[in-house]
Design a protein that fits this description.
By secondary structure, this protein is of the alpha/beta class. 35% of the residues are buried. The chain is 55% helix and 17% strand. The mean pLDDT is 97. Bound molecules: thymidine-5'-diphosphate. Thymidine-5'-diphosphate binds next to helix 5.
Length: 201
């Protein structure tokens, strides 16, 4: 079952999801509400510290932490469910598909799937597909200090896992009703934006 009026953007680091979410919200601020994972909640702030390398945890622990942050994001007070009930169309920069790709690199596919099975599917999933060599160059020019997953060998593995996850959900989309749109994220900001708008209209 899908959660209506819930849209998710997914892709490897530097694929341009944040830029496009900002553009979507700017196009209609009364309708669209932007959010992201890791969240702005305390759970998300803790994860950001981990992503910066401030402390290390086992990747299995990371899977639990991302899932806990997501639980608050969806079901917590003023979370995604609440916002949708208030009439918003919520667009999230990342959701559990990130966990299925990123955390599966080191701890296998099983645990991320198990931990994320209670969460509803979005109505739309936009997958920003891009060559990791190109996206990591974007990351390089954007920020000084890299986060723990922003390394080419890891990004290549994540990109492959994303492809597999998207393919798997594509096959199930007839039964679950989630609409998956794969975007060529190597295109210009304006080209990607008009592609997204075409689908949302
Ligand atoms: P990102 O979305 O790139 O945000 P920012 O641009 O603000 O740094 O960073 C979040 C990082 O967290 C990214 O490398 C992906 C990772 N991540 C996971 O590993 N698992 C998850 O479940 C989520 C939501 C994110």
């Amino acid at each position: 079952m899908v959660l209506k009026n819930f849209i998710v953007f997914e892709g490897i680091d530097g694929s341009g999801t944040s830029t496009q979410i900002n553009k979507i919200v700017e196009s209609n601020p009364n309708k669209f509400y932007a959010t992201a994972e890791p969240t702005q909640n305390e759970t998300g702030k803790f994860l950001r510290r981990m992503l910066c390398g401030e402390f290390k945890v086992d990747e299995k622990t990371a899977s639990y932490l991302f899932a806990a942050d997501r639980c608050e994001h969806i079901f917590g007070k003023n979370g995604i469910e609440d916002l949708i009930k208030q009439g918003k169309t919520v667009v999230s920069d990342r959701y559990f598909f990130s966990s299925l790709a990123y955390q599966s690199v080191s701890c296998g596919k099983e645990l991320p799937r198990l931990l994320n099975s209670p969460f509803p599917l979005p109505e739309y999933l936009f997958y920003f597909k891009i060559d990791p060599e190109i996206s990591l160059k974007r990351v390089d020019t954007r920020n000084g200090k890299k986060e723990i997953y922003e390394k080419i060998d890891i990004q290549k593995k994540i990109a492959k896992l994303y492809d597999e996850v998207i393919e798997e959900y594509q096959q199930k989309s007839q039964e679950n009703g989630m609409k998956i749109i794969t975007i060529d994220a190597s295109k210009s900001i304006d080209q990607v934006f008009s592609e997204i708008k075409k689908h949302l209209n």
